[in-house]
Amino acid sequence: MFRRTDFKKLELLGGGKKNTKVFKVKHLKTQKQYVLKEVEARNLEKLNEYKEEAVQLSRVQNHPNILQFYGYYFYETPHNTFKLGIISELITNDNNLELIYRKREKSRLFWTEPQLLQMIYSMIDAFSYLEYIGICHRDIKPTNLFLMDNYQIKVIDFGESKESFDEEDEDHTTMATIRGTPQYLSPILWEAHVITQAKQVEHNMFKSDVFSAGLVLFQMAAMMDVSGFNQKTSNVDGEKLIKDGLKFISKRYSNLVVDILGRMMTFNEDKRPNFIELGKIIAGNDFVPRTDKSIMQYLKEKNMRENQNVNSNNNNSNTNNKNSQGLNNNNSNININNYSDEQKEYYFNQYIQKHNLKFNMRKIAYWFEYGGNMIAKHQLIKNDTNTKWKLIAKYKGNFPYHCITLYTNEQFGIYIIGGTDNNNTYQFLNGQIYRKNSMNIERSFMSCIYVPHLNSILSIGGYDYSDKNQLNSIESYDLINDNWSMSIYQDLKIPRSQANVLLYNNLNIFIFGGYNKNFGTLNTIERLNLESKKCDLLDLKLPIPLRRFASMKITDHQILIMGGITRLCKESDSTFIIDFDNYKITKYSNLPKGGIVEQDIFLDEIGGVHLFFENNYGTSPPEHVIFNYLDFQMK
Questions:
Q1: Which of 70, 144, 213, 561 would staple 157 via disulfide (CB 3.0–4.6 Å)?
Q2: DSSP for 3-56?
């Protein structure tokens, strides 16, 4: 967080609603220039409302088509009001899409098709990513978009954005307050706002954003105003205006452009795709919104695959099909993309049986808000890749910060353990929260593992807030007798917090990486023998220092390491395979994104690994990412 004294105001760039002013500023320490958006709030309630924009911006960093956010500050004024300052990257108003459009519209200077496609694809890239992490913009219009020199769109102004929790219905509709500019509202919102004058309406917020984005892009393509396109009255037929408008632009642009804009401006919300569905229509079913991979890149890969398939078919007579032998066998590859889900499920079951593996396949995850009271649920529905977190309850108290959630079994449910609270053990079972006996030490950032054959949970290492040190002790929790004990297991060789732990078999638990204030992020591995109750430090080390990542057993002798953060809090999207038979570790591939993995992971029927990356320091539901495990385990 910054202080207002860190900056010097250089120039007033503009102003707006909500007592807003925008300045070009200079950071005094680094001499770098930024944009400062300063908003005045009448009271603390309004200040917290305006801070939501900074919270949302902090969740969408490092996307090339979304404004780069650097931090914020707030302070109380002499007039008993509050001012919030949001610091972001410096982009001049010359890039504002509304201003650029007005200039080009006067001279009828149309964009070329490649230029327009860059705008279309980059907007879908940005808004599909927002949808992917559960943010609706709710005020898409030219003034809230910048056009960069490469004709890509950059999204700004999240003042009306909203975090989306899906309700239990399947069409992902929600009751939401109407936001946005009337000219760019979706039809259902325009009718509620103008005709019925309702304050709230049940609708799909993402699909409403799609319609708004479609209007903006059509306006750019046709160089014409879009007033009335969202209306259905006795005087104005918006559907006919859209149909005539698409016919008009078809004389200048290809069927591809017309088809995309037509889908986006579909009048009936039920028939309109959301942004992620739109991305899949354009780039194929492999499309997943990412910060480091655009629709254009997906299209290039799709074209390369199609060309390779053509070449492969031509040489098919020379190809020998062999059976899969395991992860390190490169003698044959099964092209999983060519198989149906039923075939994938068959191969995955064969693989599980061959290696005698047990995976968490419940396809349900729960999130408990750090320092808050919200409980959300993420349940995977077969053939639905757009599953979102659903807010299911609010706890009467507050959960601790930096606690660990751990699923045990159907009988005992989920345990919420540790964190900055004296009451540091909770049980979530059948929709109820129960307080259990607390650990002997108030610890956080520890590692917890459920040991089924012992009916116990082990809490390993962690951070002691009172002594401000990493811990090397191991506490054991008896699930049946609700009792914590520190006298069963020997201490770790290296005190560590934020480590990853894995139950390898009934005899061994491995402790990977973590953090120690004297050594920093660790790459060491320890093994806890459950029979001797002793720990030993292995000679084998992780390829990079790593903490707060995920692991799972993938063969009878191999473990897969995924994600986490390395030194200087750099996010890792790498995956590594630890081979205990050959006593070596090799890098395998990259995840769709990197970062902190704290939730239990689960697998689906076709071998997809479902990871949940920490979001907004645990105060927002984790981001759901799928890693196609079957793609490599069949090699």
A1: 144
A2: -GGGEEEEEEEEEETTTEEEEEEEETTT--EEEEEEEEESSHHHHHHHHHHHHH
